[in-house]
Amino acid sequence: MLNIILFGPPGSGKGTQAAKLKEEFKLVHISTGDLLREEIANGTKLGLEAKSYMNNGALVPDEVVIGMIDSKINENTDSNGVIYDGFPRTVAQAEALNNLMAKYNTEISTVLALQVSDDELKVRLVKRGETSGRADDKDPAVIENRIKVYKTETAVVGDFYSKEGKFNQVAGEGSIDEIYGRLTAQIELVNA
Ligand code: AMP
């Protein structure tokens, strides 16, 4: 299986690029943010629990997200592979994902980390807020908090995968096609 983690701060283009990569490499796209928003839209207990964290730009507790991911992987064991978008966001999640990879007899192929400056992230998120309908894209204080949470809780996940020799930085500014080209070049290295 080709298991790709698309890593990077909010607004770095993970969702946009994942949608394109999914088509080309015939992958299942698992976005924990999308799954959580679906739970909220369906009014589930999980959605209710997640909502206040998300509206403040905080992380939803690890055990909630990990349980959700486990069942998604379980549903897709016969796929070509998975593109993870927005997960893992903490070291505990990365460790849990390694355990799940072992459980399903596969492994993470590569981690591709989109690099975008803070100023550019804020511009992109405010712009996305005009059309996304996402409460967490509307409020500048919440946007600030999401970027801060990325730095304090999520960036260390990069070190976790660096130690495993799987962490690759990709310039995340430029046109969508330019960035896509950089990502596919990295994927070809592990998809030989
Ligand atoms: P995203 O769509 O990836 O920007 O995620 C939106 C929000 O969902 C985040 O700000 C978090 O509140 C929550 N979320 C998404 N993925 C995770 C995760 N892996 N761990 C914890 N919270 C998450």
Beta-strand content estimate: 5-15%
Please identify the top-level CATH class. Answer: Alpha Beta
Q: Can you tell me the overall shape?
A: globular
Residue share in helices?
Answer: 55-70%
Largest sheet: 5 strands, parallel
Total helical elements: 9
Explain what this protein looks like in three dimensions.
By secondary structure, the chain is of the alpha/beta class. The chain has one domain (2-181): 3-Layer(aba) Sandwich (Rossmann fold), CATH 3.40.50.300. The chain is 59% helix and 14% strand. It is built from 9 helices and 5 strands. The chain has helices spanning 14-25, 32-41, 45-56, 62-75, 91-103, 118-132, 140-154, 156-163, 176-190; strands at 2-7, 28-31, 81-85, 110-115, 167-171. Strands 2-3-1-4-5 form a 5-stranded parallel beta sheet, sandwiched between helices. α4 runs parallel beside α5 (91-103). The longest helix has 15 residues, at 118-132. The radius of gyration is 16 Å and the shape is globular. The mean pLDDT is 96. The site of adenosine monophosphate (AMP) has 17 residues, from α2 and α3.
